[in-house]
Design a protein that fits this description.
The protein has 442 residues and is an alpha+beta fold. The protein contains 21 helices and nine strands. Helices cover 41% and strands 9% of the residues. Strands 8-7-6-5-9 form a five-stranded antiparallel β-sheet, with no helix packed on it. The longest helix is centred in the first third of the chain and has 15 residues. The protein binds heme C (3 copies).
Length: 442
């Protein structure tokens, strides 16, 4: 769609906007003082699509793709009868504190640790608009409305290192694991977006074998503050206390799915550590037999057909990395399912789905091109459980070369999680270690 057309649609939308947007009379100029109403409205729409649409649907009708996996139906936000019964404050609180905070289902996540108050008020206005409800003019609490996103707890290297040392000894305590399971399944919304076994949502990765796929220090750091690791992730910060994050990490670490035993034929690859320098050369050599860089992105360099591997050495376990190379289809990274489109002209297009709206599909093709196909030209499309990554590395690379690649991938760690394996804390880390070990033992 051209920019001009988009602007035109937005303008039309604004002109037709219900009175709810007109801030109440006694309140002087519109609160989003630094932004025009137009920009504010566009941002609220974007936030809704990014954080809410998977459950509530693109148009708010409660029919997002994830809704069928939830035990409780997400509210239909276009239902004027439902929406008009709520005050603005009530809707604000629902979004800010999540379902659990207002005695409703925990499957509605908390957003108050992720979005600013201004952004949440924008969403309240957006919901009124979705419902066509102008019965509650929005009077923003001027002066108390915060424009800044909340500052999450800061996680330091000392933190994570202390956690890891303690955790490796204590992790399998039954009470810790069962508390973690309860938090995951019944209290903290995790189940709304993640699958374990045959249950749970599909917004985030399937965690059935989380203990095989992820390192515990990554789980701990990620669940406490996902935005710290990936700024634009759709996963909200659920405001976990440190002891809750530990319990959830303990629970997830016990999950091994069907891979509790490492296959025997993987033995040789893990026997000896490879040479990271040689692995790096192999990874980047465009004429080499691996040419991983053609598809993968590391710290600003490389292709984008495959997953960003900038932190993969901290997040993924060695056996997971090995499996990714030997058998890429075993686990498909979230957001990288390949899809096949058959056009009405009988042309096949394969690529990774990057977006979809009412009228078109956007696909990143194997050749690295981003194309948008109008739906009226599509005869059929199908998401496949197939990886776009070549499946024959086992045959074209030697054991040694794969060991080298693994050694290189393992060096890809952000500073806060780098080389946590060494047993002693240095004195600086000792100082910044903010976790009270007593609290952990509780
Ligand atoms: C993972 C799924 C999920 C996501 C994501 C989600 N919701 Fe919900 N939402 C729900 C469910 C389930 C309910 C129903 C809760 C109940 O009735 O107990 C709900 C209910 C609501 C309600 C009505 C609450 C009431 O008073 O009954 C509002 C308003 C709402 N959500 C807004 C939002 C907004 C805004 C976002 C994005 C910032 C969002 N939701 C993201 C699942 C979700
Ligand atoms: C509203 C949906 C939503 C909720 C609620 C949610 N997650 Fe996530 N989660 C995601 C998405 C989406 C991703 C994929 C992250 C990405 O790549 O941006 C993710 C990723 C993850 C990952 C993998 C991180 C990685 O590096 O790939 C773990 C582990 C995880 N979530 C655990 C949890 C736990 C534990 C909870 C509950 C405390 C939870 N999630 C709640 C959506 C959610
Ligand atoms: C033709 C493109 C392509 C090439 C070449 C390629 N990959 Fe991939 N890779 C992908 C895609 C797409 C995914 C995501 C789908 C999946 O999980 O299989 C992926 C996933 C991965 C993952 C899993 C990431 C995660 O955290 O889930 C790793 C590790 C990986 N590739 C390593 C490599 C290495 C090492 C090489 C070179 C030997 C390589 N890839 C070559 C496309 C490619």
């Amino acid at each position: 769609m051209s920019v001009a057309l988009k602007t035109l649609i937005l303008m039309a939308w604004l002109i037709g906007m219900p009175a709810s947007w007109a801030w109440a009379d006694e309140v002087p100029p519109p609160p989003p003082s630094t932004k025009s109403a137009l920009k504010f409205a566009a941002e609220s729409e974007r936030l809704f699509q990014h954080y809410c649409a998977h459950c509530h649907g693109t148009h708010g009708e409660g029919d997002g793709y994830n809704s069928e996996f939830l035990e409780k139906d997400p509210a239909d936000l276009t239902d004027i009868e439902f929406v008009s019964k709520k005050t603005n404050d009530q809707i604000f609180r629902t979004i800010h504190q999540g379902g659990a905070g207002i005695r409703k289902s925990h499957l509605m996540p908390v957003f108050g640790n992720t979005l600013s108050e201004e952004e949440i008020w924008g969403l309240v206005a957006h919901i009124r608009k979705l419902a066509g409800d102008d019965s509650h003019p929005l009077t923003l609490p001027l002066g108390v409305m915060k424009k800044a996103r909340p500052e999450p707890i800061s996680l330091t290297r000392g933190h994570v290192k202390a956690f890891l040392q303690w955790f490796l000894k204590e992790k399998s305590k039954d009470e810790l694991v069962s508390w973690g399971r309860r938090l995951f399944e019944e209290k903290k919304s995790c189940f709304a977006c993640h699958r374990v076994g045959d249950e749970g949502g599909k917004v985030g990765p399937d965690l059935t074998r989380a203990g095989f796929d992820y390192k515990p220090e990554w789980l701990f750091a990620w669940v406490q503050n996902p935005q710290n690791m990936k700024k634009k992730t759709k996963m909200p910060n659920l405001g976990l206390r440190t002891d809750e994050a530990i319990a959830i990490t303990a629970f997830l670490s016990t999950l091994k799915g069907e891979v509790s035993e490492i296959p025997e034929e993987w033995g040789p690859y893990m026997e000896t550590a490879g040479d990271p320098k040689r692995g790096e050369a192999l990874f980047y050599d465009p004429d080499g037999k691996a040419n991983c860089v053609k598809c993968h992105w590391i710290l600003g360099k490389g292709g984008k057909v495959g997953a960003n591997l900038s932190m993969v050495g901290s997040s993924r376990t060695l056996p997971f990395l090995l499996e990714s190379i030997l058998d890429p289809t075993a686990v498909i990274t979230v957001g990288f399912s390949s899809m096949m489109v058959l056009t009405k002209e009988k042309k096949f297009i394969t690529g990774i789905k990057k977006g979809e709206d009412d009228s078109s599909l956007t696909i990143f093709t194997k050749e690295g091109k981003l194309i948008t196909i109008p739906k009226e030209r599509i005869k059929k499309f199908k998401v496949q459980k197939l990886s776009m990554m070549p499946g024959n590395y086992k045959d074209i690379l030697t054991v040694r070369e794969i060991q080298d690649l693994l050694a290189y991938l393992n060096t890809l760690q952000p500073p806060i999680l780098k080389n946590l394996g060494s047993p002693e804390l240095d004195s600086e880390e000792e100082e910044e270690r903010a976790i009270d070990i007593q609290l952990l033992r509780k």
